[in-house]
Write a sequence for this structure.
């Protein structure tokens, strides 16, 4: 069983890349979950408000999704942000450490052993990100270079905390966490190269 | 439509400069520099009464010969005069004009500071980083840095030092016996020595590098004419 958490800055190309990978794994998007819990029309409105109050509900949905998928023998991909803005201003980790830890415990409880958890950071050059955001007219994202830089950097920093917290949860059960958790970084400055890279990762 | 958003808050502006500073590179991004195919000289002005920023862009070649094609833009910007934050006052107009032509040039020169700036991020650095293009700033005054005046002879220059860490952040350059020095500092994607070479190559016979002088003069003229027209209409 493989659980892959794919994260990165808004507009970096996570969802576009995942669509093109043709992966058979079941996919879930935390932004969509937050949108549902916050009763919003647009996913981009999530980061403009205080989404932290809705984290327990989102974690619950995530856990259920993983449980059902694993019971069916399906791999899971979580499409998320490792860092996101609150009230459109300050960055914080996409999901609080304690929830990640609990989530790690929950996953380990379901699968016990032989599961691979992959944390995949999709990143890019800030200029490439800005360009992507500009071209994507369907979304409402900040067209500020400094914002792109901060978004990428905070996602970079917090992505390691994701693997750290899940690893910590695994260690609770006596696993070293080292064999079960992998951390990958995919540079999406060239879409084709990034896609090949991501396909290789999702192949396990 | 300008592709970049600009804050009108002074503190946010300073923070943005500090963030973007992380993207600043002082290495030559183009292998052939100081040679290049086509540059853009950008002049800017701000008309206080109408709260409008004016920008003029002129193409020039590596010998400083300007093309006849001149692009001008003016946009409403409400940002006060704050030393060190010029980019937020004239930047929206500059980007408005550059958006349409940026891909036609491989070098930008500005009548503004490069790294010789209190946060190491003047107008030339800011716009250079936004477009990720080699950029150079040339001014008539030093905003930040210590230097000794160069001898009044063509292409004589002295170093401009960072007041705190004493590194060279630009040059004071004389363009002739009757000329006051102009001050050069790299903006982005170009090293400090190459910036000097490029400016010497494009300088022409004027006391201030000709393409920038022309662009700046046209912006000023346009700003004045705009206000005069407004007054006449009232």
């Amino acid at each position: 069983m493989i659980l892959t958490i794919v994260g990165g800055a808004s507009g970096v190309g996570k969802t576009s890349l995942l669509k093109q990978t043709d992966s058979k794994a079941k996919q879930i998007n935390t932004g969509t979950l937050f949108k549902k819990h916050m009763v919003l029309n647009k996913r981009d409105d999530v980061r403009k408000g205080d989404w932290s109050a809705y984290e327990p509900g989102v974690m619950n949905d995530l856990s259920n999704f993983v449980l059902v998928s694993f019971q069916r023998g399906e791999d899971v991909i979580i499409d998320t942000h490792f860092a996101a803005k609150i009230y459109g201003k300050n960055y914080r980790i996409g999901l609080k450490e304690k929830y990640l830890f609990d989530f790690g415990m929950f996953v380990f409880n379901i699968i016990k052993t032989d599961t691979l958890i992959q944390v995949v950071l999709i990143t890019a050059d800030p200029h490439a990100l800005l360009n992507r955001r500009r071209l994507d007219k369907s979304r409402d994202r900040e067209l500020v270079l400094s914002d792109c830089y901060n978004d990428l950097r905070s996602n970079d920093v917090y992505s390691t905390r994701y693997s750290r917290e899940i690893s910590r949860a695994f260690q609770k059960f006596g696993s070293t966490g080292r064999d079960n958790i992998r951390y990958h970084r995919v540079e999406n400055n060239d879409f084709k190269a990034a896609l090949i890279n991501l396909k290789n990762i999702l192949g396990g | 439509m300008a592709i970049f958003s600009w804050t009108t808050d002074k503190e946010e502006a300073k923070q943005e400069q500090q963030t973007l500073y992380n993207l600043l590179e002082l290495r030559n991004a183009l292998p052939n520099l100081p040679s290049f195919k086509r540059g853009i000289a950008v002049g800017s002005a701000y008309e206080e009464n109408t709260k409008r920023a004016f920008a003029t862009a002129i193409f020039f070649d590596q010998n400083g010969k300007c093309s006849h094609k001149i692009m001008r833009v003016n946009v409403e910007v409400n940002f006060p005069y704050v030393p060190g934050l010029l980019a937020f006052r004239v930047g929206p107009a500059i980007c408005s004009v550059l958006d349409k032509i940026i891909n036609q040039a491989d070098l930008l020169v500005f009548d503004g500071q490069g790294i010789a700036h209190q946060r190491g991020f003047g107008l030339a650095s800011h716009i250079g980083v936004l477009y990720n293009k080699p950029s150079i700033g040339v001014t008539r005054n030093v905003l930040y840095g210590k230097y000794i005046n160069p001898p009044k002879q063509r292409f004589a220059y002295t170093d401009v030092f960072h007041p705190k860490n004493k590194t060279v952040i630009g040059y004071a350059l004389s363009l002739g016996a009757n000329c006051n020095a102009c001050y050069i500092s790299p903006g982005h994607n170009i090293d400090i020595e190459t910036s000097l070479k490029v400016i010497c190559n494009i300088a022409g016979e004027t006391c201030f590098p000709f393409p920038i002088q022309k662009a700046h003069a046209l912006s000023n003229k346009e700003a004045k004419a705009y206000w005069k027209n407004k007054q006449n209409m009232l």
